[in-house]
Sequence to fold (222 residues):
Amino acid sequence: MPDNIEALRAESRRISSVAADLSEDRFAILTRLPPWTIKDLLAHLYVVMDEVNTGLAGFPPAVVDGDSVSYWRSYDPAEDAPQTAARATELAATYATGAELAAAWEALRARTIAAVTPKDGTRPIATGGPVLTLDEFLKTRVLEVTVHGLDLAAALGQPAWATAPALAITREILVGLLGIRPPADLEWDTVTFLEAGAGRRSLTSRERSLLGEVSTRFPLLT
Fold:
């Protein structure tokens, strides 16, 4: 678990650093997840991070029946995406300014990470889908913050800033969802794989040919 919490710490801290420097008009920039603005995206990250606290506050389930891969397989875009989008926009609207939301996000981020201790790693966490250990649930949070960090960077016209540990954790989950490691002939770096896996870029005809039948699994996250 130390690697997972440290990756989450680093990625979430970068989000805080970027958000703290934004002028108010930049919070209104539309992201590549329309109709979300940067403010909406930050609100979604707030919800994502706070789910760690919700999980720790709940009564531990008796049986662990999933991991960070099956967690994403249980996600139903048709049913779950509208609710996810609504929660973010509703939360964003409760803050008069992006700066206020950014301050609240930073306070929550710091408080959440401080609340996790190494002894909690095997604690079962109810997620609304499969029951995960906290260690596995933290991996899902790393993926969220890493992928949405790419979204934030793209919206601001900045280079991707994801750290190697966070990219490695996210890649591990995407490989699990794909079922194979991407063929070497694709010559994908990890960011390219993440962008394709998360549906931020479409596969080319050559990429589909090299992937074969597993190409139909893209996007791996929706």
Notes: The chain has a mean pLDDT of 96. The chain has one domain: 2-163.
